[in-house]
Write a structure and sequence with these properties.
By secondary structure, the protein is mostly helical. The protein has 4 helices and no strands. It has one domain. The longest helix has 14 residues.
Amino acid sequence: MKIENANHIHAALRAQGLTSRSWAVSKGFNPRTVQDCIQTFAPCEQRKPKRTLSKRIIDELSKTIGYDLLEVNHD
């Protein structure tokens, strides 16, 4: 599945029977922080997370949905 916007991320999580909130709680993240990261950074070629927590959230989310959200060029 090609991830082009935040809705695609939510759909990829739903396909695995998860919501962003349930995923956040299962990984020990604050659900609001996860929502903010999804809306701000994923997938975005112009903005990359600088804070350690944001990087960790996006990295874990990438592993869960099987799509590297930090990769610049997805063809």
